[in-house]
Write a structure and sequence with these properties.
heterodimer; A: two-stranded antiparallel ribbon; 27 helices; 48% helix; B: alpha/beta; Alkaline Phosphatase, subunit A; three-stranded antiparallel beta sheet; 12 helices; 36% helix; 12% strand
Chain lengths: 569, 451
């Protein structure tokens, strides 16, 4: 099946095709050139966006911009960025969805490491601060949003011993940023060889069996790479449907023996240039891990689908072959497609939607497998993404992540994070989520989590609800109040925190329709409900004798704390 | 009936909140006046997140059994001279010692307040390691996967007949008879499958108590009242989208329950028993003790608490990580026992450990990998303690109890372990069998460690 034929809407098919051509043409930039532009300290970075293909660009740009209104644009920007702004809504409506994606893909990446390095030595949690600054300010919003989704796939966290590696954690995140529109296979390899990941899932220092002492290879990275970073536990159809055996039990993708085989593959890697394997004197947290052949298991290994790696291969060759073995498994496409759709668009995509994105993974239209940019485009331009709000209002969308709600507020109201003393490394205590601080490799929430009540009873998923409970929702709500009502003018004493600018609301004081429309676009991506309007009216009446600033901040908090603002649509 | 009860509760609760907010009156009116204080019982599930290495918790302490263990574990083995010899009331054939970092548990064991249940794990039907290797019995799905095995431990729903945890199913039986059903199941560690999927959502609370809606909690200041009123009224709106609706419901529960529980906790004050510092498990158990001590305010007579300690996935640095983990467990349980005495509920509470799985007997150099069966701790005055229940398996790589490469096949099923707990809680054997479908495959429906 060709990539474009599965799209029902011709314009969308053309748009995606154009983007896929562009991405295909742009892959394979030189590592060393890119290396100069990026903040990445060392190590390979795959080519991403260096090409210039005017022909395909023109084709994409020539598509009619069928964006109904500002609300539709805002909804798209909720998915593709950390939240709409008045400017981004205008730009998107001006050039249309597909051209906007093209434009975003070509923007230079904004990396974390240079921001982290501004404080030397880095402060505690500096990588968290850097992430907040870039997610809010960076112009390459699509890349930033995709990298955040990737950081919840290839999960590392500072919560188990990496807390002092602030800069190296930022460097790890930069690998995700650099490859947000790159190739999945290359990214999987960069992640695998990152010493941060090597430490997090104990592949670093993993060695061949020592039969005399009963020591066998560490299975940690092998298992989680298969279970969480690539194919998942059960065999799936292209559309994500789980394959069952004749008893109705899901067919597993691998068994314990396969995990053990991969554990043997991932032996013999450590920090670059360690002198002493057991007590490394040199700990290079930036360079990819290095192979040490004498620590690598030389035996034959039986991998997925019975693929055999012959005995005697080098550590590098075993690793390349094993990653190819995983990458070519049919599960990767639906597994990764589901993740990206759930991260960016909706918690409960149809099988058809998953299949369309999986097809783009398997072939970007240019014969390339694993083009993440093509997956992103297919995810965002799908008919279900664009029309879900109208066609399936009851179940389409997702609960927004607490961090995304905050950054969205900051973006919409031009928060100032330029103070060099800006510091919010404790944000997890307030929003129950912080970048690179997931409690385990299983991310902040499970894709299969289902909130008690209507959602669970309807067999729907609601991953983000897992970090919302009676305690955390109070903290999150209080946090939103602090950032809207308390941190909106220079009079606040706490200069370390981001001040938002609500003058755009104050100017509209007294013009309720205009206020509700503006807040609807920026905080709801839809017009406010009748109930929200009624409460807004009540609140404005009740504060009729206060200042325009007070009315603006009260109204803003009412909107951003409302159930309708908690949901992405 | 339940639907009605819940709706009524929320309505009542919200009216109370709004009323309290505007008039500054009592917020304690939610609970019906009901006879209290009689026959209270609570279970506390202590989840050791990541897969606890139970085979280093109690260890065969002498002779060939120790040698087998030590050979598998290599330099990760606890030296036999360090083990604290346990003398069970009923002689187990294998002499065992307690990990020295759990020394605080020994007095509890010796005084009969603490027992171990040997080698518990996810099993659908009884079988030997040979049966497992031959696949002649039905095996649990996705052995050795963290989230799947945790889910199976907490749901006991191997036959996919319901989408709920066994804690939630038990709570459902109890909750509808309680005035505040939403406080039947309480989690100190966020969402968990054990308490999920029932008619009533579990209530979540931090170990340091209920946070406040800062900026909306001053019920008398005239600038906060409209803010609070508009915020609350918006939660009562009709929402068509399921995510909006669920969010509004959660926020409503948070307002009602947190306000009421918060007020009761504030009135109650701190425990006298000092809480061990830098011990997140002890901090959670301290809040459990406080919550138990305010149960009468809410007319509760049966409760299920969930607490969790993380860090047990010791693939590396096990020698450094494990002592601290074990000291935390032991310190927290010792504290909790004393806290229950302080609040006068030492006879009413049973705590038990759960975990994703045990760990491999083999070493990967500086850690252990995912295993299967593992020893578990049961604590409380109702426990017939000072004993080790079930036979200690041969902790021998590729031995008779090993499924493969040091992953020991459980000799007690989680369903049997859970059934014992639920019978003590007051469910009859028929209810327990309905709640735990796989229990039917096991002869022994009660392991006997609870009076």
């Amino acid at each position: 099946m060709s990539c474009s034929s599965s799209f029902t809407n011709l314009n969308q098919a053309l748009a995606i095709f154009a983007i896929l051509l562009l991405l295909g043409a742009c892959s394979g930039g030189s590592d060393s050139d890119l290396f100069k532009e990026t903040g990445i300290e060392t190590g390979g970075v795959s080519g991403t966006y260096t090409g210039e293909n005017n022909e395909t660009l023109q084709l994409a740009a020539a598509l009619p911009a069928q964006i109904q209104d500002d609300y539709s644009a805002a909804r798209f920007l909720q998915r593709a960025t950390f939240g709409p702004t008045s400017q981004s809504i205008s730009r998107l409506r001006e050039i249309g969805y597909a051209a906007w994606i093209n434009e975003q893909i070509q923007k230079p990446a904004t990396f974390m490491l240079p921001v982290t390095r501004k404080h030397n030595p880095p402060r505690w949690g500096e990588h968290v601060n850097s992430w907040l600054v870039n997610s809010t300010n960076a112009d390459d919003q699509l890349r930033q949003r995709v990298a955040f989704a990737l950081s919840q796939f290839f999960v590392v966290s500072d919560q188990s011993g990496l807390g002092e590696q602030q800069a190296a954690l930022s460097n790890y995140y930069d690998i995700l940023l650099a490859n947000s529109f790159g190739n999945f296979r290359e990214l999987m390899e960069l992640v695998t060889l990152s010493p941060i990941m090597g430490d997090y899932l104990s592949m670093k220092g993993n060695q061949k069996p020592d039969i005399e002492n009963g020591i066998r290879p560490d299975e940690n990275y092998a298992r989680e790479l298969l279970q969480l970073f690539s194919i998942g536990l059960v065999q799936m159809e292209l559309d994500g449907t789980v394959q069952l055996d004749d008893r109705g039990i899901p067919l597993p993708t691998y068994d314990q023996q396969v995990v053990e085989a991969f554990a043997h593959v991932f032996t013999g890697w450590h920090f670059k240039d360690v002198v002493n394997w057991n007590y490394p004197k040199v700990t290079d947290w930036y360079a990819p891990m290095q192979a040490y052949q004498d620590r690598h298991d030389q035996g034959a290994k039986v991998l997925l689908n019975g693929t055999v790696l012959p005995a005697g291969q080098s550590a590098e060759k075993d690793l390349e072959d094993a990653l190819d073995n995983i990458f070519n498994h049919p599960n990767v496409a639906p597994f990764f497609a589901k993740h990206m759709i759930r991260q960016l668009v909706t918690s409960n995509p149809s099988a058809e939607y998953i299949e369309r994105v999986a097809i783009a993974f398997n072939n970007d239209g240019n014969g390339n497998r694993g083009n993440i940019g093509a997956v992103v485009a297919a995810t965002l331009l799908d008919v279900e993404a664009i029309n879900g709000f109208e066609e399936n209002p009851k179940t389409f969308g997702k609960l927004r992540e607490p961090l995304v709600r905050l950054i969205s507020l900051w973006r919409a109201f031009d928060a100032n994070l330029d103070n060099p003393e800006f510091s919010y490394s404790w944000i997890k205590n307030r929003f129950n989520q912080a970048p690179l601080q997931s409690p385990s490799v299983f991310n902040f929430f499970s894709p299969s989590f289902s909130e008690n009540g209507d959602i669970r009873n309807s067999n729907l998923k609601s991953p983000e609800f897992q970090i919302h409970n009676e305690s955390s929702i109070i903290d999150i709500t209080s946090g939103l109040l602090a950032h809207s009502i308390w941190q909106n003018s220079e009079s606040t004493s706490d200069l370390e925190l981001a001040l938002i600018d609500i003058s755009g609301l104050m100017i509209l004081d007294g013009e309720r329709e205009a206020l509700y429309e503006l807040l609807g676009k920026l905080t709801l991506a839809k017009p406010p409900s009748a109930s929200l309007r009624a409460q807004a009216d009540y609140l404005l009446d009740a504060r009729g004798h206060s200042s325009s600033e007070i009315r603006a901040e009260e109204l803003l908090f009412l909107f951003i704390s409302s159930p309708e603002s908690a949901v992405q649509r | 009936m339940n639907k009605f009860t819940r709706r009524r509760f929320i309505e009542l609760g919200c009216r109370t909140i709004v009323g309290a907010g505007l008039a500054g009156g009592s917020v304690m009116n939610v609970a019906h006046a009901q006879a209290t204080g009689t026959n209270y019982r609570a279970l506390v599930s202590i989840h050791l997140n990541g897969g606890n290495d139970g085979f280093n918790m109690i260890v065969p302490s002498a002779g060939a059994a120790y040698q087998e263990y030590a050979k598998g574990r290599g330099h990760l083995a606890v030296p036999s001279s360090d083990l604290l010899q346990l003398n069970p009331n009923t002689a187990n054939t294998t002499p065992v010692g307690l990990n020295p970092h759990m020394a605080a548990l020994k007095p509890l064991f010796d005084s009969g307040k603490l027992a171990f249940q040997s080698n518990v794990g996810t099993m659908l039907e009884p079988g030997s390691a040979e049966d497992v290797r031959n696949k002649s019995i039905q095996l649990p799905e996705q052995l050795f996967s963290h989230n799947d095995q945790t889910r199976q431990w907490q749901k006991l729903n191997h036959f996919h007949t319901s989408n709920s945890g066994w804690g939630a199913r038990a709570a459902d039986l109890i909750a509808s008879g309680q005035s505040n059903p939403n406080l039947t199941a309480i989690s100190l560690s966020g969402s968990n499958e054990w308490q999920a999927g029932g008619e009533f959502s579990a209530f979540n609370i931090h170990s340091d108590g209920v946070g406040s809606y800062a900026g909306m909690d001053d019920h008398s200041s005239d600038w906060q009242i409209p803010r609070r009123e508009a915020f609350i009224q918006l939660l009562h709106a009709q929402y068509n989208n399921v995510f909006e609706k669920s969010y509004a419901e959660l926020q409503t529960r948070a307002l009602v329950l947190s306000t009421n529980v918060g007020a009761a906790l504030e009135k109650r004050g701190e425990l006298q028993t000092p809480v061990p510092e830098n011990n997140p498990l002890a901090a959670q158990l301290a809040m459990v003790a406080k919550l138990i001590s305010i149960k009468d305010e809410f007319s509760l007579y049966r409760q299920l608490f969930y607490v969790e300690l993380g860090g047990f996935d010791t693939h590396d640095y096990q020698l450094e990580k494990q002592p601290a983990l074990y000291q935390n467990i032991a310190g927290a349980l010792d504290f909790f026992n004393r806290a229950l005495v302080e609040i006068g509920h030492q006879d009413d509470v049973v705590s038990f450990t759960t975990s994703d799985f045990g760990r491999s007997v083999t070493s990967n150099g500086d850690g252990t990998d995912h295993g299967w069966g593992s020893h578990h701790i049961v604590l409380g005055n109702p426990v017939l303690g000072g004993d080790i229940y079930g036979n200690i398996p041969r902790v021998l790589v590729n031995g008779p109890d090993d499924s493969r490469n040091g992953r020991i096949v459980p000799t007690t099923a989680v369903s049997q372990y859970a059934a014992t707990m639920l019978q003590w809680l007051g469910l009859d054997s028929g209810e327990v069998e309905i709640l735990l479908p796989s229990l039917a495959n096991f002869d022994k429906k009660n392991l006997g460690f609870l009076a």
